[in-house]
Design goal:
The structure holds 2 protein chains of 2 kinds.
Chain A lengths: L11 H31 L1 H12 E6 L6 E2 L5 E13 L1 H6 L5 H11 L3 H8 L19 E7 L1 H9 L7 E10 L9 H4 L2 E3 L2 H7 L11 E3 L2 H5 L1 H5 L3 E7 L5 E8 L6 E4 L3 H19 L14 E8 L5 E7 L13 H8 L10 H4 L9 H10 L8 E3 L2 E4 L2 E4 L7 E3 L1 H7 L2 H14 L11 H8 L21 H20 L6 H12 L5 H8 L9 H13 L2 E3 L4 E5 L6 E3 L4 E4 L4 H16 L18 E7 L7 E7 L3 E8 L4 H17 L51
Parallel strand pairs in A: 2-10
Antiparallel strand pairs in A: 1-8, 2-3, 3-4, 3-5, 6-7, 8-9, 10-18, 11-12, 11-23, 13-16, 14-15, 17-20, 18-19, 21-22, 22-23
Helix pairs in contact in A: 4-5, 11-23, 14-17, 15-22, 16-20, 18-19
Chain B lengths: L17 H6 L4 H4 L2 H22 L3 H4 L5 H23 L1 H4 L3 H16 L3 E4 L2 E8 L2 E3 L1 H22 L8 H20 L3 H18 L3 H20 L5 H8 L11 H13 L12 H4 L11 H34 L3 H26 L16 H20 L5
Antiparallel strand pairs in B: 1-2, 2-3
Helix pairs in contact in B: 3-5, 3-15, 5-17, 7-8, 7-9, 8-9, 8-10, 8-16, 8-17, 9-10, 10-16, 13-15, 15-16, 16-17
The chains are: A alpha+beta, B mainly alpha.
């Protein structure tokens, strides 16, 4: 002990400071412990996930999209193999020049500019302009999907010159259009997934991948999940430089299931052809009301199985080639499909086109009359015109027949019978001062399924409209300001001005004229062709309103797993068996001795009872809409042509030709089962083998429709 | 010296052999602080496992030999232990006479770093390559010589009984002797070591009993200095960002921010029990740079979890607790100052090193005592332990 210092030799100041140091040390260590607890225990799960993201990289092998097949297994949409040349970025970066030389050689072989190829493999970020690769850097990046066999061979044979480059046959969507059946609006189309969709589905059961194509309309959209299948994902453990250090859990791709539809490609082709032909013919026809030829700017036809609601054919015109979407649509094509002057060929007018139904609505009015207490067989005066308070309502399609039954009124399409019934009912409901109105005519329309979707398995169906009191009121609320303004303007004494004034004053009320017009399917009523197909199918099958379906079964790629889509119903028609039979008989009469008789001359009515109803709907400011609704025991066919003239005139021959093809009926009216395409709805599903091959019959393009007798109505 | 015939009191016999001296009840061995030694040994064992885990796959570092760093770490620990034994053997008091020489040697060594003898690693010229894969970092030893030098000056008059506390003149002298090596280290520039030395100087002044005004003045100078650097725009934005990246890695995502982020992911993903030794994906995938040296704590965090990483903090706490005890129980101011300086050195390095991996301190190249791989730091830390032990064994039995 050199100092031999006593305790007093060290001041208390030192002791206090030593304690201070000790306290600081303890608090520092406690801080570390606390922070460690916070990171590892409180936020441990989050960091575990981040660590997994960090060192697991995924390589996605996209699943082959399932085919869309017709009822007999003929592919309406399938995949074709194209040679896709891709570059693996990870491999390129390992080279000392970061793959520059290889990409330049590749550009030479493919006949592309080297800078374009280089641009395609760079990764997208905020500063990089397109083109760039937005997907995972571990994913092979496609350079072109249009390589020729020769180019692919060059790349594969000189593999040592092209390390990291592959030329692989890859499946690309194809809309085959078998036998000319294009069915564009029914099939829909695909386009690449958006960032928004990726984030949206990230946590869901079926997350979308960067490489995915998503169905945007039609069946492609409706059955997107089933058709897409599940992409295979190989997960690699990588180190900080992206070098693979191991392989983690991997999922094999599950190819998408095939969708079997009730569409028959042959019938579809004929329906499309006949619709197109009918519209072309209508354009040659002079419209006496306007003094110019019919414009026939749009049309639709639906062929439905009467007993199930399955759609055998559905055509919409104008149409387009769905292959335009494959491999990314060009700006020019996109404009042609969606531009202002395009007439919107993407619209499926069978479910998205709506118009007043005209006289094909009368089956609803007739049912409403029976429900309101008017006997079907009673005598109703079919006068040549009907006037209410000085306003004269014409008997458009018909002439005066004197007292006739409701059945006969349907046959000859007598408007005045329905005017009278509607007017009397309107009076009964209280006229201009309604009190507890029964509204049989409107209620019956709702009961027939109008004013709401039919529930078909296609996206974007529209509802149509029943112009009942509720609608009138809300419509008036929405429009009264502009109507009243227009009605008060000086010089507003033209037709439009008068209507505006009248609407301003009494548009909130159900007026006598509204009800009278409504009873024959004119005015504000809007229906889709599919709604009418559902209704006429229901009349045919005894009253069941089926949800129309296009999809019939979803069959896994190996054919093992078959999920049938059974027909479902959403209601029954509000009439009893007797009324049904009476209406049925009347509609048969339309085809034999009524307004459609001249179009069904020589039809084997005994073997295949044909029923029909024609309609011609007035559209303000446009030419009339042609409607024809027909059915047999098996099928219902509805056709409409906007600005196409009368129902039987414009659409009659086309519908007759469709039936001829379905049943194999020749010009002389002889049914030949050998020539019939589909005398009975297809009941069986096509067979799909274990290896995915589908047994399907060959299909021939439809024969040009038999020459038309340009006969005129008497 | 008293003796009875036929009975030899071994205890006071000057002829005792080495063995006898080591096993006697008052022997050096028995007076050693065993708890601290056990804690340090445990840390060294963990160090070896973690260094091995961090380097066994790094072919570009370990020359293809997975045991390269494992063996070298063992070697470093061995040398460190030998140095610690030497320090105890010689004794702190005996060293007191040689402090000036040691201080001089350390000054020469850090000066040599600035000559062509020095090597630059990670932006700081603070190494001397010795060949054979060995190199030394003289700043590690400078920490010790500064503590010893300042303690000698500050405690001189007090231990002689002349004064109760060091006077101003003594403090100025001591600060001057500390400032000299700091200037040289700033030239390297090795800012991490400078930070450690500043904290050591502060603790040494505190423990010496120097006037409060000196403590306050030193703290104020530090604060004013920082504010001036900030306000005068001496630093570019990227430098400020780099400094602040510990709190917000997005400020410097490719540089320090990357380190902090990956370190945090590694530690956070460990959870309670960790991925298991050799099973950490961040470690195996080499996502954390400098993982065997400055970021060794992330290996513990990821592979041993909260329990293992917490154990390291706990063991460091044990070492510091025993060191504080030694500082308080020492009756000589010289020993107290040395012990306090070593406490500040170990405590600050531990806090800064672990703190930066946890994202609560800025990133600086400071090793974790006893755990980080590295010869010089391991040697210096063990010498520190040796000095603490020599204080313990040399204090009078009565105390």
């Amino acid at each position: 002990m050199t100092g031999g210092l006593s305790e007093s030799g060290r001041g208390s100041r030192v002791t206090i400071r030593l304690v201070t140091i000790q306290i600081i040390v303890v608090s520092l260590l406690l801080t570390l412990g606390g922070r460690l607890w916070y990171l590892q225990i409180r936020q441990g799960a989050q960091y575990t996930a981040e660590a997994a993201d960090n060192h697991i990289q995924q390589v996605v092998a996209p699943a082959t999209r399932g085919s869309i097949l017709d009822a007999r297994g003929i592919p309406l949409a399938d995949n074709e193999t194209r040679l896709v040349v891709s570059a693996n970025r990870t491999d390129l970066l390992k080279m000392h020049d970061r793959g520059k030389a290889v990409l330049a050689r590749l550009a030479g072989v493919l006949g592309l500019k080297p800078e374009d190829v280089a641009a395609k493999v760079r990764l997208c970020d905020a500063k990089t302009p397109k083109p760039c690769w937005a997907g995972s850097p571990y994913q092979p990046i496609p350079i072109t999907d249009e390589a020729t066999t020769q180019q692919a061979l060059q790349i594969r044979e000189r593999a040592e010159d092209f390390p990291g480059v592959t030329a692989e046959p890859t499946a690309v969507r194809r809309y085959a259009g078998p036998g000319g059946a294009n069915a564009a609006q029914v099939l829909g189309y695909l386009s690449p997934v958006t960032d928004e969709e990726i984030t949206k589905t990230k946590t869901g059961p079926a997350p979308l991948l960067r490489s995915d194509q998503v169905g945007r309309s039609g069946l492609e959209r409706q059955y997107d999940t089933q058709l897409r299948g599940k992409a295979g994902v190989t997960r690699y453990e990588v180190d900080n430089l992206g070098r693979v250090i191991g392989k983690a859990k991997s999922d094999k791709p599950v190819p998408g299931a095939n969708l079997v539809t009730s569409i028959d490609a042959r019938v579809q082709a004929i329906a499309e052809h006949e619709l197109d032909q009918a519209m072309k013919d209508a354009r040659k026809e002079l419209d006496r009301n306007t003094g110019v030829n019919y414009k026939a700017d749009a049309g639709a036809v639906v062929v439905m199985e009467s007993k199930t609601g399955r759609v055998v054919a559905m055509a919409s015109n104008p149409t387009y080639d769905p292959n335009a979407w494959v491999g990314g649509i060009s700006g020019k094509d996109y404009k042609a499909l969606t531009g202002k002057d395009s007439n919107y060929p993407l619209l499926n007018r069978a479910i998205q086109g709506q118009a007043a139904p005209g006289s094909i609505f009368k089956v609803i009015s007739a049912t409403a009359a029976v429900r309101a207490g008017y006997p079907f067989d009673g005598n109703y005066n079919c006068s040549s015109s009907y006037s209410i308070g000085g306003q004269v309502f014409k008997n458009f399609e018909s002439k005066g027949y004197g007292p006739i039954s409701l059945g006969r009124a349907l046959e000859v399409s007598c408007d005045t019978v329905f005017y009278d019934l509607a007017y009397r009912q309107w009076q009964k409901d209280g006229g201009n001062k309604p009190s507890h109105p029964a509204d049989w005519f409107y209620r019956t329309a709702h009961d027939f399924g109008l004013g709401k979707e039919t529930g078909i398995d296609l996206p974007g169906e529209v509802k149509g409209r029943v112009p009942d009191r509720e609608w009138k009121k809300s419509y008036w609320e929405a429009n009264k300001d502009s109507w009243c303004k227009q009605g008060q303007e000086p010089g507003a004494d033209d037709y439009a001005g008068k209507i505006a004034k009248e609407n301003c004053e009494s548009g909130m009320r159900m007026r006598a004229g509204d009800s009278v017009n409504y009873s024959i399917g004119q005015g504000d009523t809007l229906v889709t062709p599919l709604q009418m197909a559902t209704i006429y199918s229901a009349i045919s099958n005894g009253g069941t309103l089926y949800n129309p379906t296009v999809g019939k079964a979803v069959i896994s790629a190996d054919g093992k797993n078959v999920q049938e889509l059974k027909p479902t119903a959403h209601g029954t028609l509000p009439f009893d068996r007797r009324t049904r039979d009476q209406i049925d008989a009347a509609l048969a009469g339309v085809a034999t001795q009524g307004t459609a008789a001249w179009r069904f001359q020589g039809w084997p009515q005994k073997d295949i009872p044909m029923h029909a109803k024609t309609g011609t709907a007035e559209v303000y400011g446009k030419q009339t809409t042609s409607w024809i609704a027909t059915y047999t025991g098996d099928y219902t066919v509805i056709m409409t042509i906007s600005q196409g003239g009368t129902g039987s005139g414009a659409s009659g021959p086309a519908v007759r030709n469709i039936y001829n093809a379905l049943y194999g009926v020749d010009d002389k009216g002889k049914a030949d089962p050998g020539k019939a395409l589909l005398p009975r709805p297809e009941a069986d599903l096509p067979k799909i083998d274990k290896d995915g091959t589908i047994e399907a019959q060959k299909i021939e393009p439809p024969s040009p429709s038999p020459s038309r007798k340009e006969d005129k109505q008497e | 010296m008293s003796a009875t015939d036929g009975y030899k009191i071994r205890r006071f016999s000057p002829e005792r052999g080495v063995w006898g001296r080591l096993t006697a009840r008052d022997s050096v061995l028995r007076r050693l602080d065993g708890i601290m030694l056990l804690a340090v040994l445990a840390l060294s064992m963990m160090s070896t496992a973690l260094v091995y885990s961090a380097t066994r796959n790094r072919a570009e570092l370990n020359h293809g030999d997975p045991y390269y760093f494992l063996l070298r770490n063992f070697f470093n620990i061995g040398v460190g232990m030998a140095m610690a034994i030497g320090a105890v053997w010689v004794g702190l008091r005996a060293l007191r006479g040689a402090v000036v020489i040691l201080y001089g040697i350390s000054l020469l060594l850090i000066l040599a770093v600035l000559t062509p003898l020095g090597a630059t690693i990670n932006g700081a010229r603070s190494w001397i390559q010795l060949g054979g894969g060995f190199s030394i970092q003289p700043t590690e030893f400078t920490k010790i010589t500064i503590i010893l030098m300042m303690a000698t000056i500050l405690a001189g008059k007090v231990d002689a009984g002349d004064r109760a506390y060091p006077d101003h003149r003594t403090v100025v002298e001591a600060l001057g002797l500390a400032a000299l090596p700091v200037m040289i280290i700033l030239l390297m520039p090795d800012l991490g070591s400078v930070m450690v030395i500043v904290v050591i100087v502060l603790a040494v002044l505190l423990a010496s009993g120097a006037s409060n005004r000196w403590i306050a003045g030193l703290l104020a100078t530090g604060v004013v200095g920082c504010v001036l650097v900030w306000q005068l725009g001496v630093l570019d934005t990227y430098q400020i960002n780099r400094f602040a990246a510990f709190a917000n890695p997005a400020l410097d995502p490719s540089g320090v921010g990357y380190n902090t982020n990956q370190a945090r992911i590694a530690i956070g993903s460990g959870g309670l029990t960790g991925a298991g030794l050799f099973h950490g994906s961040q470690t195996t995938g080499q996502f954390v740079p400098e993982q065997q040296t400055d970021f060794i704590f992330t290996v513990a965090g990821e592979e041993l979890g909260f329990l293992g990483a917490g154990t390291i903090i706990l063991l460091l706490g044990v070492v510091l607790w025993r060191a504080c005890r030694i500082a308080r129980e020492s009756t000589e101011l010289y020993s107290t100052i040395v012990a306090a300086g070593i406490v500040a050195w170990f405590a600050f390095q531990s806090f800064e090193n672990i703190g930066m991996t946890l994202g609560i301190m800025p990133v600086a190249g400071i090793p974790l005592p006893f755990v980080s791989y590295g010869g010089s730091s391991m040697f210096a830390a063990w010498i520190g332990v040796g000095l603490l032990q020599s204080i313990k064994v040399q204090r009078p039995m009565s105390a």
